[in-house]
Structures
1.
Amino acid sequence: MTADDPLQPYRQKRHFGRTSEPEGGGRQGSPEPIFVIQKHAARRLHYDFRLEIGGTLKSWALPKGPSTNPREKRLAVPTEDHPLAYAEFEGVIPPGEYGAGTVMVWDIGTFRNLTEKKGQPIPVEEALAHGHLTVWLEGQKLRGAYALTRFKKAPDESWLLVKKDDDWADAGQDILTSRPESALSGRTLEEVAAGGRLETG
Ligand code: MN
């Protein structure tokens, strides 16, 4: 029985003989959970926001990417769980395969769960199930607190990612254009695309 395998949908969508995305694996038991934001030039350009929760990367697609401006509410649409190893995947998914296009690690780091209710800390998995999550990001580009809130349930489940108003909030810049480079390799999206060769961590 593999009914509880959270990565089954991820594996079912992909042919691992053709794409060099990881089939599974990845670091586990690191002292702090990781987060990653991948810029994904698929049929439509978007960013994928992923948080290490319960041994996999919980994932949301951000059509407009993240923002450091607390007044910018960014749509976050849940997608399938990804293996932890995916956090360091940067390369090209071949034409015809699921998610075909270039994937670049735009930001990577660790996060802390700050979710609380009436002053009491809420475990991250519970917060996720409730649809209210506050996380502190320690990335190379994004820092500080972000709220992730579900505002619409399935079948069109939708969340919003919003910067909290703290010292790391910045309404005066668009960090997507001021810091376009890979947090992993320093390359531009175009350089990753031209590199062609798939990184395998
Ligand atoms: Mn994607």
2.
Amino acid sequence: MNAECPVSKKCGGCSWIGKSYEEQLAQKTRNLKKLLSPFCRIESVIAMEEPLHYRNKVHAVFGEDRKHNVISGIYEAGSHRIVPVDGCLLENEKADQIIVSIRGLLKSFKIRPYNEDTGYGLLRHVLVRVGHATGQIMVVLVLASPVMPSKNNFVKALLKLHPEISTVVVNVNNRSTSMVLGDKEQVIYGKGYIEDILCGKTFRISPKSFYQVNPMQTEKLYAKAMEYAALTGRETVIDAYCGTGTIGLIASDQAAQVIGVELNADAVRDAVNNAKRNGVKNIRFYKNDAGRFLLEMAEQQAKADVLFLDPPRSGSSEEFLRAVSVMKPDRIVYISCNPQTLVRDLKILAKYGYRARKGVGVDMFPWTECMEAVVLLSQ
Ligand code: SAH
């Protein structure tokens, strides 16, 4: 399968658009084998069946062209020039349509897009998140100031065009920063969050919480992680870097107890909610640095049988891995979005007596070079 996009050069989002999907998969398997074969056997990359429009989180920046027409799209790679985009091969199509509709409504509501150079105007970005299994849709309007004229009528007009929208949130970002979302939020329609279902469990997604962008492949990733963990129902399990608790909650049915640790307070709040929402009683979440938390557990001679870790791109920390060597969990399932830091951490774990047993890549990001991998280690 091949694909084309008229703005791919300027945008840079789909850096592998020139390769067929089959070629991409073969190259991803090759790259992963090259990096990980010194450690263990690597299965072929798990492909996406229909590798298009998989991103359930879509972001558009708003601005004006030279003739003062409203445009929306993405920043040109490495700059703050806006490349107008109405549709993208990677993005959820409904989300793209909603963004185009919002652009069309602005004029009649006399809402100007924000101008980064002059500081005039109101609408900076629109973020749309879609629950893959539930079909729920969240629209976040990122404004430069908290006052949105006739916001109720705006929502009414938007819902008339897209009755499928579940919630609309105004987010205020009045700083000059490359962060899309600011701190202040006001829900102007619906509940302020959406839900999605992964591996039979329901998860809440707030405007700011981390949630994997490709839910179909995420299910395969988590299923692989569970297969590698081979839980029997008797284990104490740690879910480190747990985000909104997805992996720990999915593991909870097959474990005696689960402990989740995560640094981001919003994510921990979502995780606690998610446990309640799914009636899971054998899980506890802690807001802490994963390394510090694990060291404290090790000092108290607490034991764990299985450790899941899913760190950010920078990988795990020396401190964390040292704590692992003290706690000596039986099995470690390492989920990584950056094979480079994965290799670095596998070398450290090898010094502590952990041998990688098998690994696999999951293609979470077709048409890009990004890689996701799962590796099982044991003593
Ligand atoms: N396992 C989750 C989230 C993985 S993303 C999922 O699959 O959805 C990585 C997470 O690590 C993020 O939620 C981030 O906030 C968290 N994180 C980053 N640094 C951390 C640290 N030092 N200690 C604990 N959590 C951290």
